[in-house]
Amino acid sequence: MNEAAPGPFGPVRPSTTSRGELRPAGRFRVEGGLWAERLEVNREVTVPLGPERLEEAGNLDNFRLAAGGGSGAYQGPLFSDSDVYKWLEAVAWEQGREPSAQLGGLQRSMTRLVASAQSPDGYLDTFYQCHPERSRLTELTFGHELYCAGHLFQAAVAARRATGDTELLEVSGRFASHLADVFGPEGRQGVPGHPEVEMALVELYREVGDPRFLRLASYFVDARGNRLLAPEHFDSPYFQDHLPVRKATTPEGHAVRALYLAAGAADVASETNDVDLLDALALQWGNMVASKTYLTGGLGSRWEGEAFGDPFELPPDLAYCETCAAIGSVMWSWRMLLATGNPSYADLIERTMLNAVLAGVSLDGTRFAYVNPLQVRSAGEQVSERSAGYGRRAWFGCACCPANVMRTLSSFEHYFATSSPRGVQLQQFAPGALAAPTPAGPVALAVRTDYPWDGEIEVEVLDAPSGRWELSIRAPGWCDNPSATLRDGSELELSGGYLRAERAWSAGDRVGVRLPMPPRRTRADRRVDAVRGCAALERGPLVYCFEGTDLPPGADLDRIVSADGPITTTQLPWLSAGAVGLRVAARFPDPDPGLYRPSTVEPLTGGGTEVHLGTVPYFAWGNRELGPMRVWVPEA
Ligand code: FUB
Ligand code: ZN
């Protein structure tokens, strides 16, 4: 076992020999503003809810049963174990942020429970252990054993990195060894129906150094796409099993599966220095951003198969946009950022975290969204318990998203900064501090800002190694004219998507970054049929939406015909101190124009009743009175 001490390492820690332009710079301590509020609610409210909800749903009883100490029958979907592991991962990162006796006690008892259920041969999956009539590690299409194993391994790595605790890591090592004995070119040919174990095996390899785990991850990535999975309920594309990862040009099929696979493949590419694989992933990522990504960063247009749609198939109201898919996108983008240094990946992380992921949990931290459409109609379509028309919910029969949000927020501070032999790169912005062990020596930075409500950011060097090194600050893709100035008046250079300055920095040096964020209207590519002729409001990295609760009596959000004219800003104290809302004049038809009319008749966008409406950041929708919501509105 690798004896590295617990350190400032997050969910991804490339080996020193791996390919990669950047390395994680360690945890950025968020100390104020929006992110501090969201992380605090996650720590104080959401994560502590986990054990209670997992107990109620039967996930923990499944482990008691598998350990031989419980009674009753297995409960929940066959991948229920994964929710326990995601919670354990969340609590590990929280313990790394600041140890809590209460969380620590819950963590220890749940860890022991998990360990007690492991079979002597290393196998661990309570569904199959509670169903001895079912065949283990063979029902790969929907069995989810490898998916659950992956979440176990990630929780174990988190516990080791954040707190030094190795109990789950030992459990994981035994299970991964068992998997390595079973699968592979010389063993059982097969791939997981739901990817996840690939990135987890790579991370386990990085933590404990056993090359069999990296080999197994590489095998799973390379074997996929050869129709090894017997189609069940869905055809091969749903499982990304119709085309080898290296040959695919765009993510397809079930969105979470596709994104977890891509993240795992990026880990394999980085760890094995596989440039071809990395290039294929970059192509897929580029095509996803160019034609399959919602304005919020949400992914997956179709309810059917929880899947990606065709290029430009991005209906706002029928969007699925599972919270887990947004999280998968962040995981993939982070790995691509590390591998390539291209700040576009950090741009997507920012957009996705601030819009799609944050929308996945209520502001009070107690309720969760599974699907995240960009429009909810007045009738509030409710086709399933997941429907956004119900608003966020306490838990779900299939509860993959809630604990996924928990672990993502608990580890998010690790996604803020990177380092390279040249220096340090600040990728995300919040008030706080970074102490980064860079190749040049330790660098400490303080960041002061009201971002994302305001685009002024001050970066102060608190500690710097002697000699020259480069400080780089991501220039967000949404910003038209980013700039940064040193106190002596010299400007940082804008190149390759970063504002940079290479110099002999000293403690006390300060950079003033300006990211002007006037409110703006955004249009989609004309090929996005569903929102052609519409515009959305954005400011900085935030997407805004209209909510029915802000409408005057009698006005119907479904019937808005335009929202043109100047956009002004306003304060939203119910959301957060300093939170900025947008206001705009909207028009409603007067009289009703009828469903169809001759093309020679002017569209009814200019007339009608004008109403001044407030809009709120998309992530905060549905936190006041539940009702209709929409991001896109027609333009006159
Ligand atoms: O199959 C496990 C999880 O359940 C998937 O990632 C989600 O999309 C949901 O189907
Ligand atoms: Zn989910």
Architecture overview:
- There is one protein chain.
- The chain is of the alpha+beta class and about 625 residues long.
- It has 3 domains: about 400 residues, Alpha/alpha barrel (Glycosyltransferase), CATH 1.50.10; about 100 residues, Immunoglobulin-like, CATH 2.60.40; about 120 residues, no CATH class.
- The chain has 14 helices and 21 strands.
- Strands 3, 14, 15, 16, 17, 18, 19, 20 and 21 form a 9-stranded antiparallel sheet that branches. The protein has a 6-stranded mixed sheet with strand order 1-4-5-9-12-11, with no helix packed on it. A 6-stranded antiparallel sheet has the order 2-6-7-8-13-10.
- Strand 4 and strand 5 form a beta hairpin.
- Helix 10 runs antiparallel to helix 11 and helix 12 packs antiparallel against helix 13.
- Beta-L-arabinofuranose (FUB) binds next to loops.
- Zinc ion binds next to helix 12 and helix 14.
**Protein structure class:** alpha+beta
Q: Helical segment tally?
A: 14
Portion in beta strands: 15-25%
Helical proportion?
A: 25-40%
Say how many strands there are. 21
CATH architecture of the largest domain: Alpha/alpha barrel
Cα Rg: 24 Å
Which geometry do the CA atoms define?
A: globular
Number of domains: 3
Largest sheet: 9 strands, antiparallel
Cofactors, ions, other ligands:
beta-L-arabinofuranose, zinc ion
Unreliable stretches, pLDDT < 50, 5 or more residues? 1-6
Mean pLDDT: 95
CATH class of the largest domain: Mainly Alpha
CATH topology (fold) name of the largest domain = Glycosyltransferase
* First-last Cα distance: 64 Å
